[in-house]
Amino acid sequence: MQQTFTRSNVERKPRSWLVILDFVFYAAIIAALVGLAYYFYHFRDSITLFFPVFLGGAGLTIFLSVSSMILATIFGFIGALGRLSRFVLFRVIAAVYVEVIRGTPILVQLFLWGFGIRAVLEQVGFDPYNIAFNFLTLVQFNSIMPSPFIFDAVFYGIIGLSFNYGAYLTEVFRTGIESVPVGQTEAALSLGLNSRQIMRKIVLPQAFRITIPPFANYFITLVQDSALLSTIGGVLELQQLVTAAATANASDANLQLFFYVFGALMFFCICYPLAILARFLESRLGVGY
Amino acid sequence: MNFGIIPQVLPDFLHGALNTVIYCAVSFPLALLLGLILALMGSSRFVWLRGPARIYIEVIRSTPFIAQLFLMYYGLSTILFNISTSLGGTNLAVYVNGWTAGIAALAINYSAYEAEVFRAGFLSVERGQTEAALSLGLNSQQSFFRIVLPQAIPLMIPPFVNDLIYMLKDSAIVSVIAGVELTAVLETYRIRNGSNTIPLFILAMVLYLILSLPTSYFARWYERKLRAAL
Q: Nearest chain B Cα to A225, which residue?
C-alpha cells in the first residue's frame, strides 16, 4: 500500500489498543498509595513515637542546609573573584581550591573536617565551643548552647559542607559573571565608571539572574548531601536520627526497613517541592533578556 | 603530622582505589542501560510507560543517595529474607553484601540522572532529522537507532563523563555500608591511627584526584573539540 507522509500524518500516530494499559497504570498508582497508607498504618505506633523526633531532625537538616548555603555563597563569591582576578597568585589559589574540592568526594572532606582538622585545631588550642559560649554569655543568651560534642560536630559539618559547595558555586558565579557580554563593560567604561562601579552596578545585577537556577539546584543537592553528616557523629539531623532509630530496632528487620523508608520519604517531602520551585525558576529566569 | 606512615599504608590504599574503580566500572554501564530504558519509556506516548519512568526519576532525584543505599542494603535483604522464608528454599538475603547493594544503589541512583542526559541528548537532535528519515520510509525504530541515536551520542559524552566523575566521588558513600573501597580503607586507618590522620586524608584525596582529574580534563578537552566541530 502506498503511504503518503504529510506533516500531519507523521505527527498523528494511530491509536493503539495498548492505551488501555494507561488505566491499569492509574489503578496501580491508587493501589500503591493505598498499600503505602496501609504500610504506615501497620507501623502507626512507631510513627507516633518517632515522627516528632524526626521532625526535629528535619528542622536541623534545613538549618544546616540554609546556613551552609549562606557560607558557601561567601566562599563561592570570594573564589569567583579570585578566579577572575588580575593577579596570577589569586587565580592559582582559586583554581587549586576548585579542582581539589571538585575532584574529591564530599564524604572524605567531611571526615577531614570532622576528624582530621578538628583534632589538629584542638591541639593548636582553637575551641569554637568556647568562643561561641563566651560570645553568647556576653549577650546574655548562652542557655541555647548545646553540648560541646554536638556543637563541634555541627560547626565542622557546616564548614565542611560550605567549603565543598563553595567550590561548585565558584564555578557558577564565574560562568555567571563571564556570561555578561563584554560590550556591557565597555559601554560602562566609556561612560566613565570605574572598575568597582562596573562590577557592582553593571555586571553583578545581570550575572545574578543567570546564577539563580543553578544556585537553586545546588541547594537541593546540598539538602541531600547534609544527610552525609550522619557519618561524622553528633549531628542529629534527619538521616542520623533515622539511622539511630533503625539501628536500635535492628532485631526486627521489617521495622528497621520501615524507618529507612520513612526517612527517605521525609527527605522526598523536603526536596521535591524545592525541585519544583527550581524548575519554575529555571523556566522563568533561564530565558535570555 | 608524620608522613612516614604513607609507605606502610600505600598498598592497602591502592587496593581500595582499585575497588573504587571496580564499583564505578560495573555500576556506570548498568546506569547507562537503565537510563536509556528510562529515557525511552519517558518519551513514550503511553502513560503507563511515561508515568512510571517519571515517578522513578523524580523519587530517585529527590532522595539522598545515602538513604537509598541504606534502603538497598537493609531493605533488599529484608525483602529477600521475607520472600525466601515464605516460599522456602535457600535464603536469598545472603547475596546482599557491600558489593551487590553498593553497585545496585549506584546504578539505580545514576540511572535517573543518565535518563535526563539521554532525554536532553535526543531533544538536541533536530526534529527535521526524524521527519526526513520517516519520509524516506524508515520506520520509527530504524529512524531512532540509525538517525537520532548516532547523532545524539557525541553530544551526550561530556555529561556522561561528568556523571562518571560524580559516581567516582559518590562511591565513597558505599563505605557506610559494608563497602571496601578507598574511603573504607581510609576510615580503617583513621581509627587505627587516631593522632596522625592528616597524612592519610592527603593520601586518599591525592588518589581520588589522580582518578578524577584526568577524566575531567578529558571531558573538557572533548567538549571544546565538539564545540569547535559544531
A: B64
Residues in chain A: 289
Three-state secondary structure of A114-179 = HHHHHHHHHHHCCCHHHHHHHHHHHCCCHHHCCCHHHHHHHHHHHHHHHHHHHHHHHHHHHHHHHC
* Residue contact A103–B208, C-beta within 8 A: yes
Q: Is there a contact between B226 and B154 (Cβ–Cβ < 8 Å)?
A: yes
Inter-residue contact A107 to B172 (CB < 8 Å): yes
Whether residue A247 is predicted with pLDDT greater than 50 in this model: the reply is: yes
Q: Please give, rounded to a whole number of angstroms, the shortest distance from the CA of A135 to a CA of chain B.
A: 30
How many angstroms separate the CA atoms of A90 and A197, rounded? 21
pLDDT digits (tens, 9 = 90+) for A48-58: 999 999 999 99
CA angle A40/A43/A49 to nearest 5° reads 110
Residue pair A53/A61 in contact (Cβ under 8 Å)? The answer is no
B5, B88 Cβ separation under 8 angstroms: no
Amino acid at B144: F
Residue from the list B62, B67, B186 with its beta carbon closest to the beta carbon of A239: B67
Which of A246, A254, A268 faces B62 most closely, judged by CB atoms? A268
**Nearest alpha carbon to residue A66 among A229, A209, A220, A185:** A220
Residues of chain B contacting residue A102, judged by C-beta atoms under 8 Å apart: 212, 216
Residue contact B173–A25, C-beta within 8 A: no
pTM here is 0.88
Residue A35's pLDDT band, with cuts at 50, 70 and 90, is very high
Q: Where are the domains of chain B?
A: 3-229
**A260–B169 C-beta distance less than 8 A:** no
For chain A, domains (ranges, CATH) are 57-285 (1.10.3720.10)
CB B225 within 8 A of CB A129: no
Q: Which residues of A touch B183 (CB under 8 A)?
A: 105, 107-108, 111
Of B48, B170, B198, the CB nearest to A116: B198
Task: Give pLDDT tens digits for B41-97.
Answer: 988 888 888 999 999 999 999 999 999 999 989 888 888 888 888 887 777 777 888
| CA closest to A265 among chain B residues | B63
Q: Taking chain B, what is the end-to-end CA distance rounded to the nearest angstrom?
A: 51
C-alpha grid cell for residue A92?
592559582
Q: Which residues of chain B make contact with A231, given a CB cutoff of 8 A?
A: 66, 176
* CB distance A118 to A84 below 8 Å: no
The CA distance from A33 to A29, in Å, is: 6
Residues of chain A contacting B62 with CB distance shorter than 8 Å: 220, 267-268, 271-272, 275
User: In this complex, is the C-beta atom of A39 within 8 Å of any C-beta atom belonging to chain B?
Assistant: no
Per-residue confidence (pLDDT) for residue A17, from 0 to 100:
77
| Homologous superfamily of the B3-229 domain (CATH) | MetI-like (1.10.3720.10)
ipTM for the complex shown: 0.89
